[in-house]
Amino acid sequence: MDSGNHSNHSHSQPHSQPKPPKLTLHEWSIVILFCLILLTITGFAIGRSKSSPPVVKSLRNLHEITALQVNIEGEVGKPGFYRLPLDATLNDLLIQAEPFASADLSELNWRRKLRDNERIYIPARHLITIQLKGAVEEPGSMEILSGTRYCHLVDLLPLLPNADVKGMRKRRSFVFEGDCVEVPASKIVKKKERVNVGKKEKSSVDYTRK
To answer: What is the per-residue pLDDT for 42?
Structure first.
C-alpha cells in the first residue's frame, strides 16, 4: 500500500497556472483610444501653460497703448480713477480733479508724465517757517502756509514804505521751509533839472524813487 501510494504521488502532474484572458480587438481599440485622449489632454494643458503669459502680456500691452488709469486722492474736489491719454501729465490730471485751495501743490512736478496704475495723494497745506530780511518792519522768522507762492507772499509781509516788490509779484515759484526771503528797498536817484528863472538858469535837485 505504501509503495503504491508513493508511486501515485511521484507520477502526479503539477497544477498549471491560469493564463490571463486575452483582450479582444474591440477592447484593445478602447484602451488605445483612452491613451490617445489622455495624451491629447496632457499636451493641451502643457501648451496652454506655456502660451498663457505671452497672451496676457500682449493684452496688457494693448491696454497700455489705449490709455492710462490713474487714481488721485486727498485735497481734490473730484477724487477717484481717471483714464487719460498716454502722454498725459500731472497738470492734465489736476485740471480734472480740481484741487482745493487747501491743497499743497508745492512739491509736485506738474509737467511730469503720468504712469499707468499710479496713485497720487495731494496733501493739505501746513505751517512752515521762513526768514525775512530787507525792507520789512520785522526781520526774522515768520510762519506761512506751505504752498505759498512768492507773488502771493507779498500781500502777507509787513513791508516798509520803501520796499520794492515788483520782482516778487512776478515770481510764481513756491516758498519752502527755511527759505530766506529778502525784500529789496527802492533806490533813490538824484535828477538834475535846469529851471529858467527870467534870464538866469537855476539848477534844482529832485529826489525821486526808482
So the answer is: 78
